[in-house]
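Lecture 7 notes: from sequence to structure.
We start with the chain below.
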Amino acid sequence: MGAIKLYKYLDFTGGLMMLHYSNLQFTNATQLNDPFDCHPSLIDFSNVPKEACGGWTPAIIEELRRDPFRRTREKAWICSLSKIHDSILMWSYYSKHKGICIGLDMEKVQKYLSRIYGKIMIGCSVVEVQYKDIVEKPDYFRDAKDFFHYQLSTKAKAWEHEQEVRLFILDPWPTYMSLLPGQNDDKGPIDWKEVRAFPEIGGECFESVYLGINMSTDEKSKIISVARKLNPDIKIYQMGIDANAFKLNTELIK
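Predicted structure tokens for the same chain:
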């Protein structure tokens, strides 16, 4: 990927934890905030040709072809990043501009993620999200397409402002899995899909931190302290309002 910078938007607590533990968070595809995300319905399995039936009914063949994509969605853990650090909408999602945005040097990140953490080597599993209308869904039996990557990298045009790039793992090793706060066995069996994966990366991967406009002075101090401890060369920026346009500015904190 070269020396590409990608960004992770987080609320204050999530940002502090990411910097403190020097890791990336991967979430199961079924737990993402868009119910269409990675869904088999993104692909059209209904036009079964006669030659593909082999004595079975088209309905059975359709279900047989769809099932692996249903299982892929359950086995895929995704880390969502963005190409941009100054999206007004993205900043609004995370604590109304009280959160942070972390800039990652992906060339350095890839050196840590080139090991096998699951069935797929995630150093090679980086996909840029494509934004489409669902009416454009490809025909499984007639289109020459990489349907696996299509499933994991296609979202509705409504999300286009995120400019998302994804890292993904299939069946991550239990070593890298962790519960979110509040999840425990006292509440009954834990749904494996609700568990997150947290592979560790080096401090040098953290290239920059952007502080939200509405973040408190105390929270800024905590973030700056943890960030500089993680990487003394990290660049820290304060987000600000451009008085002449509907956009955000950045100012380097010395």
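Points to note: The mean pLDDT is 89. Residues 26 and 79 are 4 Å apart (CA to CA).
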